[in-house]
Task: inverse folding
């Protein structure tokens, strides 16, 4: 049974958003840890320095995850059936 186009689009959008959110959270954590170890960021740094390190990294992580999440959601809609 082939899923409807609206279901495939809905699952693709949901998959993209979920994976982007997960990538933003884990990518931000990864960036903070690496920044501490490389010395780019210190716990005493002001909020502007934190923002200058975190914002570009989190933006890149989230945008990069969108197409992968959409593809995973699209293929998941073909595998799992709604009951």
Result:
């Amino acid at each position: 049974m082939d899923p409807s186009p609206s279901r495939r689009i809905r699952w693709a959008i949901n998959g993209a958003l979920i994976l982007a959110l997960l990538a933003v959270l884990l990518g931000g954590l990864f960036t903070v840890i690496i920044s501490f170890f490389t010395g780019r960021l210190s716990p005493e740094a002001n909020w502007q320095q934190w923002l200058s390190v975190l914002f570009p990294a989190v933006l890149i992580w989230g945008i990069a995850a969108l197409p992968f999440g959409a593809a995973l959601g699209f293929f998941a809609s073909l595998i799992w059936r709604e009951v």
Observations:
- The mean pLDDT is 88.
